[in-house]
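Recall the central idea of this unit: under ordinary conditions, the amino acid sequence of a chain determines the structure it adopts. In this exercise we apply that idea directly, starting from the sequence alone.
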Amino acid sequence: MTQPEPPAPASPPGRRERKKAATRQAIADAALRLFLERGYDDVGIREIADAADVSTTTLFKHFPVKEALVFDEEADRETQLLAAVRSRPEGQSIPAALRDHALHHRVAMAGGDAPFREFAALVNGTPALRDYAQGMWLRHADALARAISAESGLPEDDPACTALAHFALEVPRVTRGHDDPRRAITRVFDVLEQGWCAVAVDGP
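Accordingly, the structure predicted from this sequence is:
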């Protein structure tokens, strides 16, 4: 039997894509530096564009709203979130996989290195950024629900999948401000685990 040929490796990004990525990164870096130096509310869009040596039109092509400048890795976050469900160890439940993902990212914000703690303080201390961050997480709910459905064997429109995705993504808001974020996150996921076990059996 003839073995199928392996897929061709992805071609490296072209010059235009590399230039766009570099411009986007320069804008995000300039914005974060200014926000950390002076505070989010005291920095204007034009200042950020000038610091990145781009026009405001170019800035808005990459970041449609000011809040998005702080969260330039949103697509990567969704990829990591879905991978936590799809690549979980054998025998681990979906809620437990989501708990570990939340612990890894949320507890790191409290105990990471100095730049990471500064970033966390900026987000947590700015209402507009807190709201945007929560909305950003909830935008991943549909994709997460589909991944939960596929892994559990439940129908894609099963409300249990939608509910688990939604409540798991609400954890950052529910646990914000607790002195012991690890304990708070674990307690919330204990509740989700019990509810999930009542309605579904995880797939392999």
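Residues 74-199 form a domain with the Tetracycline Repressor; domain 2 fold (CATH 1.10.357).
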